[in-house]
Structure formats: C-alpha cells, structure tokens
C-alpha cells in the first residue's frame, strides 16, 4: 500500500542511524546500541551487529501470498528472504508448499521473533533464520529470493545477486524495483502494493555488471 511504501522511504531518508532505530515497528522498541568500548561486548540476542539499513515494516500476508504465486514457489525450491523480519515469507512457503527457506536479518529481535513464529507454525524442520548482514551472506543455493528493502538497497545488492545466483533464479521484490534492471513482470495487488519479478539471466548485460 502507498502508505507503507511512503513510510519506508521516509524513514530511510531521515537516516536510520541518526534516529537510533533498529528494526522498529509500532509495537517494538529497541534498546540496541553499538557497544562503546571493547569491554561492552553484547550477545547476539541484545544488539544487532550494526544498525539495519531499513526499518522493519512487514509485508501484508496477502502480498506474501502473491509474491510466492508470482515466483511460482514449489516444494523443491530454496527460498531466501533477505531482511526477513518476522519470517513470514519463508514460513508461509514452508507451510503452503513444504519449501525449504532461509531468512536473513541483521536484527536479533527479528530473528528471535521469526524463530518463535516458525515454531508456532510447525516448520522448524524447513526454515532457518540467520542473524547476518544480507550484503555479506552466502545466498548461492537460493532458487527464489524475496526482498522488501528500499530502491537504493536493491540496486546495491544487484551485483551480489548476479555474482552468486544461478541463471534462472527468480527474484521478487515488494514495492521497489532494481533501477535500470527492468523487471520481467510487474503485478499490482488489490490493496495497492506492487510486486516486481526478475530471473537471473545466463549472461549479465554489460550495463548491469556494477
Ligand atoms: C521492510 S522489512 C521486511 C521484512 C520481511 N522481509 C517482510 O517482507 O515482511 C526489512 C528488514 O530488513 C532487515 N535489515 C535491514 N538491513 C539489513 C541488513 N543489512 N542485513 C540483514 N537484514 C537487514 C530489517 O531488520 C527488517 O527486518
């Protein structure tokens, strides 16, 4: 929906770091701060490795369903959600299709929440959540990648997608495109979201290599 998209873009433009926000929602307050000294080492459950690049705003369930449908997710896929929030995308794929999924999020609160949700959904044998920086993660086994980040982050991620993913890997992004990498499909949902769809080409066009 337009409001959610605007919220993400607005918060991004205000600089996540200066707000001291780490994965905020309307319900979640964060206490995370970067340790000031080497002796202030915190456990992964207390603090993100660094501030998230984008705040937490969940994709509505109907849009999750449409993203999975657009990517034609099946049991034999391996789905990676980069910036996985409460885990709803891989959890839904595991519940509906038995798909194996990995969620990556930099914020330990989100990882904890996602693990709890996976347990409630009974899919802990199919999904795994990793507290990592998505820009440094090994995503090479993915056959489907889902994104709900920001336009600038999608473009920053693009070379890594081309470097790591096999030709034919499907990518779906909620609300944000990939700059001059034109999508193969664009779907408008009933409640006003846009979903973009690409597949990794056999040969990356020269203008998209960096
Ligand atoms: C807009 S939310 C999307 C959540 C989920 N994918 C969904 O669609 O419901 C973006 C998520 O990315 C995470 N994030 C931000 N920067 C990250 C980074 N560098 N590495 C991993 N996760 C990050 C945030 O903590 C947040 O949970």
Strand order of the largest sheet: 3-2-1-4-5-7-6
Distance between the termini: 31 Å
Task: Please write the string of helix (H) and strand (E) elements.
Answer: HHHEHEHEEHEEE
Number of discrete helical segments: 6
Q: What ligands does this structure carry?
A: S-adenosylmethionine
Fraction in beta strands? 15-25%
Mean pLDDT: 85
Shape assignment: globular
What does this 3D model show about the protein?
By secondary structure, the protein is α/β, with parallel strands linked by helices. It has helices at 2-13, 16-19, 61-70, 88-97, 108-121, 151-164; strands at residues 78-82, 100-105, 127-131, 144-147, 170-174, 185-188, 194-199. Strand 1 (78-82), helix 4 and strand 2 form a beta-alpha-beta unit. Helix 3 (61-70) packs across helix 4 (88-97). It is globular, with a radius of gyration of 17 Å. The structure holds S-adenosylmethionine. S-adenosylmethionine (SAM) binds next to helix 4 and strand 2.
